[in-house]
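Researcher: Let's run the pair from yesterday's discussion. Sequence first, then tokens, for each.
Model: Starting with the first of the pair.
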Amino acid sequence: MFLARVLGSIVSTIKHPDYNSTKLMVVQPITPTGEDDGPSAVAVDSVGAGKGETVLVLRQGAAAALVLNVKLPAVRSVIVGIVDHIDLTSQ
């Protein structure tokens, strides 16, 4: 799982059946402090994320199958949470 910032959405009228009725988003992996951390990626949005939001992205096919309720999905990355706040202070 990794943190990412949503850069935007992808519109596609013709796509693999596993992507029907899903929203595809472009995400930029980030560090907990908000710095870019690697190349951007495409992820299926399962939570209704929007552009500019910080999200949790799961990058594992088996877990994507559970989230999307598809037996063998052609999906690797799924947005599974919207981050409200990150607290990096030690306790």
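Model: Moving on to the second of the pair.
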Amino acid sequence: MLIRLRSRDGLERVTVASNATVGDLQGAIAETLNVPVSAQLLSRNQALLVSKDPVSGKEFADMQSPGATLASLGIGHGTLLFLYYSGNRVVAPVTAVTPHGAFGRKMTMDDLIARQTRIERQETPHCSALSFDREAANAFQRYVHESLAFAVKRGGIMYGSVNEAGEVKVDVIYEPPQQGTEEGLLLMRDMDEEKRADVIAEGLGLRKVGFIFTQTVSQASRDYTLSNAEIRQAAEFHAESEFEHWATAIVKLEVNEDGGADVHFEAFQLSDQCVKLFKDGWFLENVPDLDPKLTRMKKEVIVLQKDTFTVDNDFFLVPVKIFDHEGSLTTSFPVENREPPATLQALKAHLERHKTKPYVKRISDFHLLLLLSNFLDINTDVPQLTEAIRTEGPVPDGYQLIIESMASSF
């Protein structure tokens, strides 16, 4: 009897006896399709082909007994099964041809496929790991948890550094002017302020390394990792950065075993293909009644050997490992663009609270420096402060007097 097999390579067929077992089918696959038995995982569950961890999934264990007959599993002539396999194999090209054009020029099936875009998963991220400064991460999640109750979305731009191994450290989260709702996040970027943030970060040996945002409690019940709107917003930042190691992080509440809720961080990179498609304008926006876990494309693409205009967002995501670390900066000064806004009165309170520390440590806070940049020259004064902080050297007396004068005006 004929058994149809759908794998990542498309639809293929093998022939076995009517009384064949699962083991016999695996042997036929090994002989006909060059997939070793030890590398095979068969299932009637089509979710096998999009699972992030198919080998461990109990829902794909329906054909794991080699001695079971296919008939006992309800498998007969023409049944469609799904095949996952580890490793790689050489697939024989389809050479069927068809006349094309007025003069009958012949075109292979490979020619036709080449005319379309095939959506494929990216297995390995360029960002091998993402480590958050504990104070910076805590300041972000605490505000969202305690002040916003995860009821509206919040976002930020991550500043940090990357080493030769592709490991990214996040030491600062800058929060631009924004308006969050239950479903959306509108960033009203103040480019003058953001430029000052860039200069401060550069003086501290940092650069933009990623985008972070929260998901609301209402999103927790949805069956997606990122919505199509979140994919587009993340892709916009990634494309703008021109930075290979750019990361996207999400913060959300997850129910724990005791029925309570824990704050959870996850990190991803958008695939190279996703960013390129976004740059090329393939993503459609504002599609009525579209499931948020899907992205609608302007042109037809191939997903799992099927022509379609919609792509599951998970195809665009490459998971990144998360760690934490203790950086040299503090995050105890009020963060910009929150309510209530940071003021010089907050500066006075901050300096008083840390008066026992060396002066350079008292001002080793990105958000404090951003406030000071409203009053100091960003090109001459601020670099003097960031150099002192970066090298842990003394702050020039003149700048100490200026800062103390600002604080004492309240």
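Researcher: Give me one sentence on the second I can quote.
Model: The chain is about 25% helix and 30% strand.
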